[in-house]
Amino acid sequence: MSMSVSATPTGHTDGDPGSRYAVAVHGGAGRYGADQFSDAQKAAYHAALAEALAAARAVLEVDGTAVDAAEAAIVVLEDTPLFNAGRGAVLTHEGVAELDAAIMDGATLAAGSVAGVTTTRWPIRAARAVMEKSEHVMLQGAGADAFARAAGLEQVANSYFVTPERQRQLERARARGEAANISKFGTVGAVVRDRHGNLAAATSTGGLTNKRWGRVGDSPVIGAGTYADNASCAVSATGHGEYFIRATVARTICALVEMKGMALADAVRQVVHGKLVALGGEGGVIAVDAHGNIVLETNIAGMFRGWQREGEPPRTAIMADE
User: Fold this and answer.
1) Which of 13, 80, 119, 187 is catalytic?
2) Which of the four, 119, 249, 294, 298, has the lowest number of CB atoms within 10 Å?
């Protein structure tokens, strides 16, 4: 299924180069139908996405930075067990939560990411600490948790992240002998343009249900699942990460905007419905450019998402055709 998801039928919202902020968040893309959610479940997803937008908005309304706003939105989503990030993330074959996250500052191209953390409560904060408090871009596994602990970030037992629903999901996957598969409740992300015109992108995930051997997807890979550059746009992706890595989805979108002068909506569609589909990849992206244009696009049935530009009401949606 190939459908545009956005604030308007054309697939994007038109911004301007003024001082207005713009923010979009996602809670993952997946193969699901609207009829599988009860009204109460739908309300809970909409409320969680709205809360993430509100957290970003609280930063932006006081002239805060895009990086601060993106982190604030992700923290909310990592705390929400509805999504595959932080508490409520999907589990590995061994029943462990292994968490990945990345953040990037479009003003400086500074970036930080972590992969396979198991005890840091907010992986996105660990990624930011890597960006700001180390000379590195990516840390992984026990070393990433040790770095986060040394940076003063809260640590928890891995059981903190595990929910009964994710345990049942893993048990079903094991019983069916499934290889790692895309979860219908996916990765979370945020893209922001602040009032100063600076961009930021952030992404956080638990990866794939029943994953093995320390598998890492696109979310913490700068240029694949996460990228931001003031010269073009900020992008956060969700979907089957192996394909997003091969297609360098986030950076390719930004390069089309920067180097070919393409409109953000056109660049996103070319990658999501062109290059990605040609490889067999399913998923979607959210993106914002320096003018405040927002694009939310998926080539799959649904994508949890929310968006808002300053002076306009926040909006949230679940299915691709909403």
Assistant:
1) 187
2) 119
